[in-house]
Amino acid sequence: MAEILLVEAFYGGSHAQLMDLLVNHLSERLQPGEVDLVTMTDKKWHWRARTSALWLAMNIPRKRYKRLFISSVANLAELLGLRPDLAGCEKILYFHENQLEYPVRNPKLCDYQYGYNQILSALAADKIVFNSEFNKRTFLDKMDPFLNSQPGYHTPCRSLIEPKSSVLYFPITLERVKEPANNSVLHIVWPHRWEHDKGPDEFFHAMEELKKAGCDFKLIVLGQRYDEVPEVFEKARVSLSSNIIHWGYAPSKEKFLQLLRNSDIVVSTALHEFYGVAVLEGAFSGALPLVPNRLSYPELFPKGCIYNTRAQLVKKLKEFCRKPLVPRRLCSSLDLSKYHWSSLKAGYQDALMPPPAKNSSY
Predict the structure, then answer these.
(1) Which intervals hold domain Glycosyl transferase family (predicted)?
(2) Residue 252's CATH number
(3) What angle do CA 111, 115, 117 make, to 5 degrees?
């Protein structure tokens, strides 16, 4: 009997990082063939969220698994309907994000099916794991109001889902870098997807204010771009050209980490974030996080890393432009240990490893 099946319908970025880490960890503890990973590429998220259950049902091996670990991109309820043989295993649902908290630019055009699918998946799961308390709280808080918007029939589900919900932070595997970069000019990095929900307008407006104030700084803009790139990126590329030392997606993980290690400050202006892997990786690489007072950030970082307004962000950055060696020194004093794999390994193992049988070797 195979022990564990891991399923990821959007295998890329942090979703792929987590699955690869878990597969490697489990493979060291189980026999060959006892861990299976089934994935789909990280293309066209909306299609994956709507239709991945069918492809997965047709491609998951027909084995008797003890546990299934699946991210909330796929509809678990649909998958179990198509593959009833999987219903008997313990089903663990992992939320990297939740669609009930997704910022909607035009509510009249909102597709409510995505949030509804995640509720169905949560009902079908035996255990639900969120990557942050913010992610868990917003999903649970918005669930029943969302369901009660249905005309005539109210179906509150929080009481069914909350008791089986818990939090396990996404594990960072980088070792801490505490040595100074010794930059004579402040290096600022923005490491996010090139989309509106990451707040690029807010970030580049702040950079323009720094430049107009005569501040000396260098700019590293990382992150993955998609088909529709917000116009502000091209405008910023031109107006901030003399400050830019890197622009665009890093060609390799090694190059990405090298750029983070050469940065003094990692900035987020996100409007939509349930954890903050890139910011944490920046902090582990020695860059001081400056993050907004919203979303998951107050849960992750102390008050000294948090700003309330763009004016506060700009003020902090101006101060660090005058003292470019200070940010990395401040970052070295942050306690980030609870986000490292070494601290989280036991929690993931408890969630995934079957209970040891009598006379078992593990």
Answers:
(1) 176-301
(2) 3.40.50.2000
(3) 105
